[in-house]
Amino acid sequence: MTKKKKKLKIKNIIILAIILLTIIFVIKTLFTNRDFQVEMKNSVMNVGDVYEENFTATFKGKEVTDEVMVTNNIYNTKIGKYQVTFTYKSEGREYKVVKDIEIKDTKKPEIILTKGDSITIVLNSEYKEPGYTAMDNYDGDITNKVKIKGEVDTSKEDEYEISYIVTDSSGNETKATRKVIVTAKSPLTMSIKDFNLDGLFTDVLLTETENLGSEYTDDMIFAGDSMALYYVINKNIPGKRLWHKEGINPETALTEPIYINHLETGKTFIENFKERKPDKVIMTLGTNSVSYMESDYFIKNYKKLIKGIKEVSPNTTIIIQAIPPVAKFVDDNGKITNDKINKYNYYILEMCSELNVPFLNSAEVLKNAEGHLKEGYYELKGGQAGIHLSKTGQTKIFEYAQNHAVIE
After folding, report:
1. Nearest-CA neighbor of 148 among 181, 177, 180?
2. Rg of the Cα trace of the chain?
3. Which alpha helices (DSSP H) does 204-253 contain, by range?
4. Is 238 in contact with 247 (CB distance < 8 Å)?
5. What is the dihedral of CA 303, 309, 310, 313, to 10 degrees?
6. Which of 46, 54, 75, 114 has its CA 20 to 30 A from that of 344?
7. What are the residues whose beta carbons fall under 8 Å from the beta carbon of 343, sequence distance 6 or more?
8. Contact predicate 204/353, CB 8 Å
9. Could you read off the pLDDT of 185-226 as tens digits, one per residue?
10. Are 35 and 59 in contact (CB under 8 A)?
11. Which pLDDT tens digit goes with each residue over 111-152?
12. Contact criterion met (CB below 8 Å) for 36 and 85
């Protein structure tokens, strides 16, 4: 045999050996991959989906999903088509399966309407867009992409609809609508018999909820003037949950020290909020103010007080309570009248909307058919007869607070 033939024979043997080894490797790999199986629930996933919930893995028929390592796992941040590798190790050997997956954004954006989806304004007043925000799970803040359709004619009583439409970069569209009611029935011109705040500033006006009971009010602070004092006196509320000073108003509340549980603190409301940072507070101010303080000056100082409290204790839930009505014989005296109280409560509600603070309209549960404080709901003793609430009256607004709760 010539050297040339020998070399050719050796070369053929090497080639044959390589082919055999390749065949053996392929066969071995095929059988190995049969041992390790990965099943995808969906080959298309949404941005942010939990990958571990989208596949199951088995090894020789046994569930091993929790032991599998996933690589190229970038589906939750970027739209596109990817190959994902699943790796499982057993007895010193490594098994891999590669799957194709497409990540899409199919979730619609969310539009949040400031002040809610229904507002009421008075005839011939100015309509100001209350505002809105639009957030998308993939694009983030897309408020600047919102398109508004519709108009409000404040010179005509009617119900108007404003539409808010936004589309994200993936083509997902969301539409929200706001109903705007234009009415000639202004709370500022209503009789005390007909007065109500229904439908006004619905973003902060607390509506009826399930009764959350004492669990909701057990840690609540009662703050303000003597109305807060009678809350505690008549309900036998324990602990340091009374923050008050008799006769205080929004102006003096900015500078005068208050009592906590009848003990002088030497500190103002704002200073005590800064130090103690309570969880929930019902603030009641204004009964005395309506007799001598102009409404705009009253609101100006009330705003300063609430803004100051929010600044030093931002996590406190502040609930502003309506000024309660007075008995008819007090109203007849002409100094503190239910007409003035109603107007002040409207202004307080308007302020609450501006400051994004819940308003508890408990005054409505205290009134008789004529709009005065119900008989039996007020104290008959002392210089504040017909003004301070009795135990029955306080129980009513306490229950009202529990079923007109702030749901967080």
Report:
1. 177
2. 35
3. 213-217, 226-235
4. no
5. 180
6. 114
7. 187, 188, 295
8. yes
9. 888 889 999 999 987 888 899 999 999 988 898 889 999 998
10. yes
11. 999 878 888 888 888 888 888 999 998 999 999 999 999 999
12. no
pLDDT digits (tens, 9 = 90+) for 346-388: 999 999 988 999 999 999 999 999 999 999 999 887 667 899 9
Q: Tokens in use for 60?
A: 């020789």
How many Cβ atoms are within 10 Å of 56's Cβ, its own excluded? 14
Q: Are strands 259-260 and 242-244 parallel, antiparallel or unpaired?
A: antiparallel
Specify the 3-state DSSP secondary structure of 344.
helix
Cβ pair 377, 214 in contact under 8 A: no
Q: Name the token pair of 226.
A: 């003597």
Question: Residue 231: pLDDT band by 50, 70, 90 thresholds?
Answer: low
Q: Which two tokens stand for residue 301?
A: 């100082």
List Cβ<8 Å contacts ≥24 apart for 32-38: 32/93, 32/95, 33/95, 33/97, 35/59, 35/60, 35/95, 36/88, 36/95, 36/96, 36/97, 37/97, 38/68, 38/86, 38/97, 38/99
pLDDT surpassing 70 at residue 318: yes
Residues 6+ apart with CB under 8 A from 120: 180, 181, 182, 183, 199, 200
Among candidate residues 209, 183, 196, 199, the one with its CA nearest the CA of residue 369: 196
Q: Are 287 and 227 in contact (CB under 8 A)?
A: yes
- What are the residues whose beta carbons fall under 8 Å from the beta carbon of 205, sequence distance 6 or more? 197, 349, 359, 361
Give the whole-angstrom CA distance, residue 238 versus residue 270: 23
